[in-house]
Amino acid sequence: MTSRANLYLGLVSLVLALVVIFLWIPLDTDTGLIEKVRRRVTIGDALAPTIAACFVVLGGGLLVLAERNAADQPGLTSSNLRHVLWVLGLVALALLLMRWAGPLLMEDYRLLRATAPWKWVGFVLGGTILVTGLISAIERRLSLRSLAIGIAVTLPLIVLFDLPFDDLLLPPNGDV
I need a labelling partner for 47 at 20 to 30 A (CA). Which of 32, 88, 157, 170 fits? Predict the structure, then answer.
């Protein structure tokens, strides 16, 4: 019997991404993908999560269409499931750090959440931990190199997404 891991992973990814696109994002955001107010075009609250979910749809679709019958698919083993649970735990930890690092660092964080350098505390810490943890899981060891890569990946994201836009707050500052 051949493994159907790619098919199952692809189908779960597709279903979750479509739920995010058609249910979660519309119910959770106040604005659309792009907003135009008084001839000023701004990024809407729904743009970034919609783009991310579309990439998940693309990946899930490729797994379902192209890889579902591949001969070299991994089997569903307890080791694989432990790895998936470890990665989900790492993502949860990174998201908790993103959300709570700033408020735990200072009492008046809500007032300073849109000012540098305070607005980057949670994003830098959570993003660095996420990337470093994923690299360390793959390499099966923690290293200064993986930490440097984690920082080197997180900082350009701030430059790319935060600095050019005056009215954009990196996660989770919009919710704090």
Answer: 88
